[in-house]
Amino acid sequence: MGRANRVVLAYSGGVDTSVCIPYLKHEWGVKEVITLAADLGQGEELEPVREKALKSGAEQSLVANATASFVTDYAFPAIQANALYENRYPLSTALARPLIAKLLVEAAAEYGADAVAHGCTGKGNDQVRFDVSITALNPDLKVLAPAREWGMSREETIAYGERYGIASPVKKSSPYSIDRNLLGRSIEAGPLEDPNTEPPEEIYALTKAIADTPDQPAYVEISFEQGIPTRLNGETLAPVTLIQQLNEVVGNHGVGRIDMIENRLVGIKSREIYETPALLVLIQAHRDLESLTLTADVTHYKRGIEETYSQMIYNGLWYSPLKAALDSFIQKTQEHVSGTVRVKLFKGNATIVGRTSEYSLYTPDLATYGAEDQFDHKAAEGFIYVWGLPTRVWSQKRRG
């Protein structure tokens, strides 16, 4: 007896998700498989992917263009939160998963499916992100994960697919596993599994090698309105266009590479390479603008919130009560995070060299050491006495 009659399958066109189609039908008795490929600005033509799903046995093959939503509903809130997992990774891949889960749930409702499925294995983070997000959006939907249960090696998976007319992939000269969307690329596997091996230049596509970058620096001015990037060099741009243009100019100067040992949710340490040029610079610029426009206590308190927020995205809890509560806090902090940050790009470095805002809390007459100084220096002595009083009492008692 089958586990479901009609299933919507998250589909990428790769070996695992293609084999999921006949596997669901022949091993698990699913009557109808509808595939859903999400266009998140990965820069590839998805029509061949759509056709491959039909050739692999899908009754219907859907392509959802969700790039605009990906930027405005997922990337921008993460930028407002300065979301960096383990203070390094800007979550370019992780942010895509709750959106894909939402598309699956919506398609299941539209087409009357009683289950959704994905091709994640049991070792990665994505299975958690999909399963938990889908459950949060519709707890009545079954979630099927054939690749987590079939126990086949890659060779066996390819052979299984061939039995049902899925062409064996041309042997790839590249041993790497790559995931790409508008926000960046993640690269793993192959020689990169040795954490002591320097990443070869061939794995990069969005960022130039330092030797190939321009010999003159470039300056880019990024303008924000309430924590949302809106303009580059004074020109108002649509969200997707802004990311595309910034990816190009930042990557051209070799900025945006990350090489890290990452702690996966399932308890494994994984060596990961990321290219996220625009996203890294946007977070860097946004955080700097906050230093100009937020009070000290809000700035310091928000840092802890940002770490929790980043972990929640990484751990698949985008649709959760705590995340919703943190969103409210973050949105409140962004009311006056508007202004422009000037970034210098040169030989792999992005350096902030200027910032301005009509909501700036920086007061030149108080900060200056020149003749314009209006700070009351005499007030400092009484302030220090009161501020240091607990320490003084503690020291006296200890010595006494």
UniProtKB/TrEMBL annotation:
<feature type="binding site">
    <location>
        <position position="38"/>
    </location>
    <ligand>
        <name>ATP</name>
    </ligand>
</feature>
<feature type="binding site">
    <location>
        <begin position="10"/>
        <end position="18"/>
    </location>
    <ligand>
        <name>ATP</name>
    </ligand>
</feature>
<protein>
    <recommendedName>
        <fullName>Argininosuccinate synthase</fullName>
        <ecNumber>6.3.4.5</ecNumber>
    </recommendedName>
</protein>
<comment type="pathway">
    <text>Amino-acid biosynthesis; L-arginine biosynthesis; L-arginine from L-ornithine and carbamoyl phosphate: step 2/3.</text>
</comment>
<dbReference type="Pfam" id="PF20979">
    <property type="entry name" value="Arginosuc_syn_C"/>
</dbReference>
<dbReference type="GO" id="GO:0000050">
    <property type="term" value="P:urea cycle"/>
</dbReference>
<keyword id="KW-0067">ATP-binding</keyword>
<dbReference type="GO" id="GO:0005524">
    <property type="term" value="F:ATP binding"/>
</dbReference>
<keyword id="KW-0547">Nucleotide-binding</keyword>
<comment type="subunit">
    <text>Homotetramer.</text>
</comment>
<feature type="binding site">
    <location>
        <position position="125"/>
    </location>
    <ligand>
        <name>L-citrulline</name>
    </ligand>
</feature>
<dbReference type="InterPro" id="IPR023434">
    <property type="entry name" value="Arginosuc_synth_type_1_subfam"/>
</dbReference>
<dbReference type="InterPro" id="IPR018223">
    <property type="entry name" value="Arginosuc_synth_CS"/>
</dbReference>
<dbReference type="GO" id="GO:0005737">
    <property type="term" value="C:cytoplasm"/>
</dbReference>
<dbReference type="InterPro" id="IPR001518">
    <property type="entry name" value="Arginosuc_synth"/>
</dbReference>
<feature type="binding site">
    <location>
        <position position="121"/>
    </location>
    <ligand>
        <name>L-aspartate</name>
    </ligand>
</feature>
<feature type="domain" description="Arginosuccinate synthase C-terminal">
    <location>
        <begin position="176"/>
        <end position="394"/>
    </location>
</feature>
<comment type="similarity">
    <text>Belongs to the argininosuccinate synthase family. Type 1 subfamily.</text>
</comment>
<feature type="binding site">
    <location>
        <position position="89"/>
    </location>
    <ligand>
        <name>L-citrulline</name>
    </ligand>
</feature>
<dbReference type="InterPro" id="IPR014729">
    <property type="entry name" value="Rossmann-like_a/b/a_fold"/>
</dbReference>
<feature type="binding site">
    <location>
        <position position="119"/>
    </location>
    <ligand>
        <name>ATP</name>
    </ligand>
</feature>
<dbReference type="InterPro" id="IPR048268">
    <property type="entry name" value="Arginosuc_syn_C"/>
</dbReference>
<keyword id="KW-0436">Ligase</keyword>
<dbReference type="Pfam" id="PF00764">
    <property type="entry name" value="Arginosuc_synth"/>
</dbReference>
<dbReference type="GO" id="GO:0000053">
    <property type="term" value="P:argininosuccinate metabolic process"/>
</dbReference>
<feature type="binding site">
    <location>
        <position position="186"/>
    </location>
    <ligand>
        <name>L-citrulline</name>
    </ligand>
</feature>
<feature type="binding site">
    <location>
        <position position="177"/>
    </location>
    <ligand>
        <name>L-citrulline</name>
    </ligand>
</feature>
<feature type="binding site">
    <location>
        <position position="262"/>
    </location>
    <ligand>
        <name>L-citrulline</name>
    </ligand>
</feature>
<feature type="binding site">
    <location>
        <position position="129"/>
    </location>
    <ligand>
        <name>L-citrulline</name>
    </ligand>
</feature>
<feature type="binding site">
    <location>
        <position position="274"/>
    </location>
    <ligand>
        <name>L-citrulline</name>
    </ligand>
</feature>
<keyword id="KW-0963">Cytoplasm</keyword>
<feature type="domain" description="Arginosuccinate synthase-like N-terminal">
    <location>
        <begin position="6"/>
        <end position="166"/>
    </location>
</feature>
<keyword id="KW-0055">Arginine biosynthesis</keyword>
<dbReference type="GO" id="GO:0006526">
    <property type="term" value="P:L-arginine biosynthetic process"/>
</dbReference>
<dbReference type="InterPro" id="IPR048267">
    <property type="entry name" value="Arginosuc_syn_N"/>
</dbReference>
<dbReference type="InterPro" id="IPR024074">
    <property type="entry name" value="AS_cat/multimer_dom_body"/>
</dbReference>
<dbReference type="GO" id="GO:0004055">
    <property type="term" value="F:argininosuccinate synthase activity"/>
</dbReference>
<feature type="binding site">
    <location>
        <position position="126"/>
    </location>
    <ligand>
        <name>L-aspartate</name>
    </ligand>
</feature>
<feature type="binding site">
    <location>
        <position position="125"/>
    </location>
    <ligand>
        <name>L-aspartate</name>
    </ligand>
</feature>
<keyword id="KW-0028">Amino-acid biosynthesis</keyword>
